[in-house]
Specification:
A hairpin with a 5-residue loop joins strand 2 and strand 3. The radius of gyration is 19 Å and the shape is elongated. The strands form 3 sheets. A 3-stranded antiparallel β-sheet has the order 1-3-2. A 3-stranded antiparallel β-sheet has the order 4-5-8, with helices on one face. The protein is mainly alpha-helical and 221 residues long. The termini are far apart. Helix 8 crosses helix 10. It has 2 domains: 3-123 and 207-211, no CATH class; 126-190, Arc Repressor Mutant, subunit A, CATH 1.10.10. It has helices at residues 10-17, 21-29, 51-59, 66-77, 82-85, 92-95, 113-131, 153-161, 166-172, 178-190, and strands at residues 7-8, 38-39, 45-47, 102-105, 108-111, 133-134, 145-146, 208-211.
């Protein structure tokens, strides 16, 4: 799927939203998101514009009920038109402000600004990660490697996930700086090899509940 379509694969969406692939499947299966934010044609893909809502839904689980989170997502997502849903995050910081990502429901006021800016940052990192990796049939049979090297990007990410020290990784893969190591981890999480579990990234933002008063919870219809 081309990166400029505004659609992300499930692992890519998990990276940008800072959740798990299982969470991404859940928001689709349980219809937590409006249907315009994802597509099932040619496989499951999530619009990049949905990522702040997905991140909010799961990271605010300890602060708000599922009914409250779902209602706030529906109310705020009404502001996101189809043109915005198809557009990558680049520039959203400049074209919007915290008030645009704040939603009210009577007693409750919640800001998703940190989720929006966090998703924008991770989307930018994902773009950088794609750019440092190349696949060339003449290099290790087309295995994804760090550009300009013969170092498999998934091997680097696996070493980091295994908890190897920075010094040991540097000895094994000389010439890779901290930024490249971070991007290798992001790339591997967004493009896992078949048969390998998806890497988990610890990039979770914090929900910001601006104000809340305790009231009786809504009953499901």
């Amino acid at each position: 799927m081309p990166a400029d379509t505004g659609l992300l694969t499930l692992p890519e969406a998990a990276v940008v939203a800072s959740v798990t692939v299982r969470d991404i499947n859940r928001v689709i299966d349980e219809k937590i998101l409006p249907e315009r934010f994802y597509t099932l044609d040619g496989g499951r893909h999530l619009h990049v514009a949905a990522c702040p809502f997905v991140g909010f839904y799961f990271h605010a689980a300890k602060a708000l009920t599922s009914d409250e989170r779902g209602l706030l997502i529906r109310k705020l997502s009404d502001r996101i038109g189809p043109h915005m849903a198809r557009r990558p995050f680049a520039g959203w910081r400049k074209s919007s402000q915290p008030a645009d990502w704040t939603v009210n429901d009577g007693f409750l006021t919640v800001s998703l600004w940190e989720f929006a800016t966090g998703a924008e940052d991770r989307h930018a990192k994902l773009t950088q990660a794609r750019n440092i990796v190349t696949e060339d049939p003449e290099i290790l049979g087309g295995t994804p490697v760090i550009r300009g090297t013969r170092i498999p990007v998934h091997d680097v990410a696996a070493s980091i996930a295994a908890g190897l020290s920075r010094e040991r990784i540097s000895r094994a893969y000389p010439g890779l700086d901290d930024s490249t190591l971070e991007l290798a981890t992001i790339y591997a999480a967004a493009a896992p090899l078949r048969g390998r579990p998806t890497l988990s990234l610890s990039l979770a933002p914090a929900a910001q509940v601006v104000s809340k008063r305790t009231v009786a919870r809504r009953r499901r219809a």
